[in-house]
Amino acid sequence: MQLLLLWVAVHAAAALVHTTTLPHKTRLLATTTLVDRALDTLEDATLHLTRLSEGDAQDVGPRNDDDDRATLVVLGSGWASHALIKVVDANKYRVVVVSPRNHFVFTPMLASAAVGTVEYRSMTESVRGANPLVQFVEGAATGVNLDQRYVMVQPVPLGGDAPAPQRISYDALVVAVGSRAADANVPGARERCFALKDCEDARRLREAVGERFERAARAGDAATARELTFAVVGGGATGVELAGELSDFVNDVGRLYPSLPQEAPRVVLVHSGDELLPQFDPDLRIEALRALERRGVLVRLGRRVQRVDEEALRLDDGSDVPCALCAWCAGTAPVPFTESLPVPVGDDGRPFVDGWLRVAGSPPGTVYGLGDAFCCIPNGESEPVPQTAQVAGRAESNFRRPTTRCCLHFHTGRRPAGCVRRSSAQSRLRLRPNAASATSRDSDAGRQLAPVAGRGGGVGVFVSEPRAPRVRRRWRSLVPGPGRRRPSRRVGGLRGLPVVEVRLHCEAGRDAEPRARHVRLGQDGPFRSGYHSALMICVRSF
Description:
Residues 423-451 are annotated as: Disordered. This is FAD/NAD(P)-binding domain-containing protein. This protein is an alpha/beta fold. The protein folds into 3 domains: 2-44 and 402-541, no CATH class; 59-180 and 333-399, FAD/NAD(P)-binding domain; 189-330, FAD/NAD(P)-binding domain (3-Layer(bba) Sandwich). Helices cover 26% and strands 25% of the residues. It is built from 12 helices and 30 strands. The strands form 9 sheets. Strands 7-6-5-2-1-8-19 form a 7-stranded mixed beta sheet. Strands 12-11-10-16 form a 4-stranded parallel beta sheet. It has a 4-stranded antiparallel beta sheet with strand order 22-23-21-29. The longest helix has 27 residues, at 24-50. It is elongated and about 75 Å long. The two termini are 27 Å apart. The model is unreliable at 1-26 and 402-542 (pLDDT under 50).
């Protein structure tokens, strides 16, 4: 019965994928991602419902003798750590969260909060409210001993003397401390520019903008233009959002000051690259530039700031940008705690993590790095993943749900590297490049295929010896390959569903013990070959 339900799900998803009008790669990716995330959401919702009957977490202290849970220490309260805290199973782990900030900030709204469009309370969430079963320590991590597995924490003073440092031991450590503004290499940037990392930064910037208008109203005509010129350094997501919000704000507020020239308020965006938003698609870059120009923002591309003076920015071409306020949104740099980790780092100072988010150079399976504090370069890519909230928010899945997936494919073109031909009952499996030589046969368990492509581990797929159930011919028209009206006669689509057992042999994570996992649909990375996936089986998790 389960096999029948799974078979129906496969063809229902395939029919849904191929009836949309989007390009085949986009529609398959969007549909499978939607189903995959919907199943993740369902699982998370089930976990949240079980918490309704649970008690609250206890204060941090020595572990009870009867508590056999492993201790998971999470450093930080940003996007990556918040996503992990909300869905971590506190019944399996004793979770301790350490952060000098007791709330999560929805950073995409910081630019709106800086101009008063959004109030601060609508963009924050308490760490304890995100998961009442975790233990929270309001303090800053000052050091870590990777060999003895403990973290030194300096609690935040709360109206009295500075408390004594705490030593918190862990079985697994998740470092998600985020990053800071990269303003150390430009003279005057740290002293004279405003950052935009949390609500306090947005509040200070909001007050400073209002003060500049009051100064301009008192100043003479010669100083008016400088007092109402607002500079933004950096053409990334934060800089573009802030420049657009500032432009709308100064134009609206300027009407409240009739003594000021209406053309006096202006916003200047300085970016060292040739295009805005370098981590996004070219179409979005062009549209972002057009949107800023429509709002009256003066965009200076290909210019670096050499020095920040009291009243102007000095650029690398020798020109000056007079301004009375500058917001620094140009890049990120590691925080002191990340710099103190005894692990190798890249050119930008960030430590490396692998596909399972394990920190390179740390004891295996004990230290994980999430968010933009670390550099993760996916397999086959030359550039690291973007330092965006979307990436950090999904990073917890790689840590909490490290899965390896088995894919059934339909042939629609040339055979990509690593694809080994199997019998019609097995359809086609995309394997690793060295998978062909690893194939073996077991007389009892059936035919064992080589490890399927996956990050950090291998999957052995066992195919039953009895003849697989055949599919009626009418099903073939529901799964045509891209560029074809129906699959080739030699392949014939899925002629059966022979997979009866999938086993995971994976070294990822601290515990290599495979555990059962449900079946789901999803996507298998970028579509770089003439193959498209029809079924994906998420076989194991931790």
